[in-house]
Structures are given as structure tokens and as C-alpha cells.
UniProtKB/TrEMBL annotation:
Domain of life the protein comes from: Bacteria
Family the entry assigns: Belongs to the ThiI family.
Keywords: ATP-binding, Cytoplasm, Nucleotide-binding, RNA-binding, Thiamine biosynthesis, Transferase, tRNA-binding
Species of origin: Ellagibacter isourolithinifaciens
Main enzyme class: transferase
The protein's role, per its UniProt record: Catalyzes the ATP-dependent transfer of a sulfur to tRNA to produce 4-thiouridine in position 8 of tRNAs, which functions as a near-UV photosensor. Also catalyzes the transfer of sulfur to the sulfur carrier protein ThiS, forming ThiS-thiocarboxylate. This is a step in the synthesis of thiazole, in the thiamine biosynthesis pathway. The sulfur is donated as persulfide by IscS.
Catalytic activity annotation: [ThiI sulfur-carrier protein]-S-sulfanyl-L-cysteine + a uridine in tRNA + 2 reduced [2Fe-2S]-[ferredoxin] + ATP + H(+) = [ThiI sulfur-carrier protein]-L-cysteine + a 4-thiouridine in tRNA + 2 oxidized [2Fe-2S]-[ferredoxin] + AMP + diphosphate; [ThiS sulfur-carrier protein]-C-terminal Gly-Gly-AMP + S-sulfanyl-L-cysteinyl-[cysteine desulfurase] + AH2 = [ThiS sulfur-carrier protein]-C-terminal-Gly-aminoethanethioate + L-cysteinyl-[cysteine desulfurase] + A + AMP + 2 H(+)
Protein name, per record: Probable tRNA sulfurtransferase
Subcellular localization(s) per the UniProt record: Cytoplasm
């Protein structure tokens, strides 16, 4: 039997819906895949009529192909990945490749062939391919039943302009849109369970995410910063995070804690966090703020308090977990791989200077009045200027030439 080149075929239904933007979206997914598959024996990745095809090097083993498909499935924008072979537009070759693909598919009791022909210059239509190749595969696997409805295995055949692709193993991807197709957001990232999940959900909708972490430093250790770095490395594997700004926040919290009404402290901390995130967002051309809040989960997440924090900024604030229960969030955090890191305890600004009885129904006027006692605008500038950027691999992100710190210090004295 001939040797056929191994391929992974990437299906992406949502991108197909984007009309004239389609090719932009396809190119974004292609670039993201190229960057993330650099450790695999990939020759090239091409667009082939409504799919991306990852061509693997000669001699690539079945196991490596499966590992490559597993890496592809977690890249946002991937609806499904199929593993198989490239062959010529020839029914004998399609049959041979089909036999090989079926042989690598484990146990199955029934199958069907599903062919797609994108060019009518191939004289045999899809129905005929199904019948002819299906008949021959059935002869090769006489113990297996041909079944049109819900078969255990579907052998896919895609006939395009100058080749055919045949596969049997097909796994669902995480779906969504390629990172970089929906703009940039600032994501408030603690070392807790929720915010990494929130970030990932927005990244899966195509946003490049830039994290901001408020550390209790110098009033606490920098332990939370290490956890956030570990979390960012997990998110980096799927290209979801471009950068994290670490903001030493402890001294400013202390100032608030010394003189603000104790019950309003948390809201004042949070308003300051939002404002600093918004300041960095302007620099990064980010158009929204993301948090991991879930309605009513803790005192700061009541409707009144959410409203009182939103009031501090003009950018839209997205809360992808607002309607999720903690157990659902934990399950997703486990799938993502951030849970073991997030469950470690580290003091950050959230554990610092906490009041005994935080307000659960903040009055906006009272909050604004309490805040007016502090030089907030000056603090926002100082904190944004002190923010330390840490970079992660995100092929869709292009950092600005000048750092925020340099830009801000250059303007001093203007
Ligand atoms: P998480 O598990 O994400 O820490 P949480 O349940 O502990 O959330 P809060 O402490 O009220 O809830 O935080 C709500 C949201 O505010 C977080 O999801 C995150 O987006 C943001 N946030 C909280 N603490 C920090 C921090 N130290 N740095 C950056 N963002 C933070
Ligand atoms: Mg937290």
C-alpha cells in the first residue's frame, strides 16, 4: 500500500458565518495555529475550501498526529479536528487511505462514508463516491456494518481542486473565534479561581487579553504574582493571554484603609483597580474591562456594589461568569488546567486591610463622596506608571514600541 502524507484537517463553522471578513478570520486562525504548532512536525498549513489543512512531515507517526490534533483542538476558533491522509483524486487511493484511517480508529461496529466534492471537475459526485468507496471499505472490513444513521465511525472524504483528504478520527474542538479577531480587552486577573476562567471565555470569543494583577506589595509578599505568572503560562498554551501588568497596590490600599469609612473600603479599592485598568487600556488600545465576578457570590458582587464599581469607568465591563455557579466555574478551571494553581493560597490585595463588615448595598453618592477625599487621578497615574509588564506568547498581539512607563515619564514636566 502506498504511503500517504498525514494531515490534520481543522473545521471552523463560526468563521464561515462572517461573510466578507471570512478570509481575515481564516488567516488569523492559520497564524495562531502556525505559532502554536511549532513543536510539531508541521510542513505547512493551507486553506483548502472551508478548512485549514495542517500537513505533517513524512514519517510522522500516528501518535504524533493525534498529539498534534489534541493541541489544535484547544485553540480558539477550532470547531473540530480530523486526522487522516492526503491522497490523489483517485478512487483507489481514497479507498486505500480510508482503509488505513479505519485501521487507526480503534473498535467500531458500524460506519459510513461522507464525501464532499468542492470541484465539479472531478467526474464522480459525492453520492457516487460514498457508494463506490463505501462498498470497497465494506469489503475490506466485512465484520463491520454500513449504517447511515448514527454510525460508530464516519469516514470523511474531501475532494478539492488537486487532492483528496480522507479521515476517520474526528474530535470536537473548543469552538469560538480565533484570538485576535475581536480586538483587545483588559482582564482583571487575581490568583483566584474565577478570573482566569473569565479571561479564557473572552479569549475564546476572539479577544486578545491583557491581564492586570493588583499585588499587595509592598504590604504583602509577592507570592500572588508568582501564582498569576503560573496561571498566565497555562493560558499562554492556547494563545489566550498576551501580557500581564503587575501593579504594586498595597500602599494605596493602606492609605484608603487609614481614613475611608471601613464598610466602603472594598468598593474604593475596586474602583481604583478599575480606573488603573482603564488607564492601561487606553495605552493598549483595549476597549473593555473583564472581571471574574459572579452575581451575589461575595459581598462585593451584589448588584448595588457592581453598579458602584462600574460607575468609576467609562469602558464597558464584561463579566463572563455573572450567571455561573461556583461549581461550574471550578469545573471549567479544572479543564483549563488553572485550578491547582488557583487553589493555592497567597495574600494579594484582596486579603489586605479587609473590613469586618463590608457594605453590601453601596450608595453611589456616599461612595463618590468618600472617594473625593483622595487624590484619585494622581494615584491612577502613579499606579499605571508603576505597572510592570510581563509578556507571554500571543501571536495576535503586537506590543507598542514605547512602554507605558516610558511614555508617562517622558510626559513629566510637559
Ligand atoms: P477570583 O477567583 O477571580 O479571585 P473572587 O471570587 O475571589 O474572584 P473577588 O475577590 O470579589 O472575587 O474578585 C472579583 C474579580 O475582581 C476577580 O474575578 C478579578 O477579576 C478581580 N480581582 C480581584 N482581585 C484582584 C487582584 N488582586 N488583581 C486583579 N484583579 C482582581
Ligand atoms: Mg479573589
Amino acid at each position: 500500500m502506498a504511503e500517504y502524507q498525514r494531515i490534520c484537517l481543522v473545521h471552523y463553522h463560526e468563521i464561515g458565518l462572517k461573510g466578507h471578513n471570512r478570509s481575515k478570520f481564516e488567516m488569523r486562525l492559520l497564524k495562531n495555529l502556525e505559532a502554536h504548532l511549532c513543536a510539531y512536525p508541521v510542513v505547512t498549513i493551507h486553506r483548502i475550501s472551508g478548512r485549514l489543512c495542517v500537513f505533517l512531515k513524512e514519517g510522522t507517526t500516528h501518535d504524533t498526529m493525534v498529539e498534534c490534533a489534541d493541541a489544535i483542538r484547544s485553540i480558539p476558533g477550532t470547531a473540530r479536528v480530523s486526522c487522516g491522509f492526503k491522497c490523489e483524486r483517485d478512487l483507489d487511493q481514497m479507498t486505500e487511505a480510508g482503509i488505513l484511517a479505519m485501521g487507526e480508529s480503534g473498535a467500531f461496529a458500524s460506519f459510513k462514508v461522507h464525501a464532499r466534492r468542492n470541484h465539479t471537475d472531478f467526474p464522480v459526485n459525492s453520492m457516487e463516491i460514498n457508494q463506490i468507496v463505501g462498498g470497497r471499505l465494506s469489503e475490506a472490513y466485512p465484520q463491520v456494518k454500513v449504517q447511515m444513521k448514527d454510525p460508530d465511525l464516519t469516514v470523511g472524504i474531501e475532494v478539492v481542486q488537486n487532492a483528496a483528504y480522507v479521515y476517520a478520527r474526528s474530535i470536537p474542538g473548543i469552538g469560538g473565534l480565533p484570538v485576535g479577531s475581536s480586538g483587545t480587552v483588559m482582564s482583571l486577573l487575581s490568583s483566584g479561581i474565577d478570573s482566569p476562567v473569565a479571561l479564557w471565555r473572552i479569549a475564546r470569543r476572539g479577544a486578545v487579553c491583557i491581564g492586570v494583577h493588583f499585588s499587595g506589595r509592598p504590604q504583602t509578599s509577592d507570592a500572588s504574582e508568582f501564582l498569576v505568572d503560573d496561571i498566565a503560562h497555562v493560558l499562554e498554551k492556547t494563545g489566550c493571554i498576551a501580557r500581564v501588568y503587575v501593579v504594586p497596590f498595597g500602599d494605596y490600599q493602606r492609605e484608603i484603609a487609614l481614613s475611608a469609612p471601613p464598610e466602603l473600603r472594598v468598593i474604593l479599592y475596586r474602583r481604583l483597580m478599575f480606573r488603573v485598568a482603564e488607564r492601561i487600556a487606553f495605552y493598549e488600545h483595549a476597549k473593555a474591562i473583564v472581571t471574574g465576578e459572579s452575581l451575589g457570590q461575595v459581598a462585593s458582587q451584589t448588584l448595588d456594589n457592581i453598579r458602584a464599581t462600574n460607575d468609576a469607568v467609562s469602558l464597558p465591563v464584561f463579566r463572563p461568569l455573572i450567571g455561573s455557579d461556583k461549581l461550574e466555574i471550578i469545573a471549567q478551571s479544572q479543564q483549563l488546567g488553572t485550578f491547582p494553581i488557583s487553589s493555592q493560597d497567597a495574600p494579594d490585595c484582596c486579603t489586605l486591610f479587609m473590613p469586618r463588615n463590608p457594605e453590601t448595598h453601596a450608595n453611589l453618592t456616599a461612595v463618590r463622596e468618600a472617594e473625593a477625599a483622595f487624590p484619585i487621578d494622581q494615584w491612577v497615574e502613579e499606579l499605571a506608571c508603576a505597572a510592570e509588564p510581563h509578556d507571554y506568547a500571543c501571536p495576535a498581539y503586537k506590543p507598542r514600541k514605547k512602554s507605558l512607563h516610558d511614555l508617562m515619564t517622558e510626559n513629566d514636566g510637559d
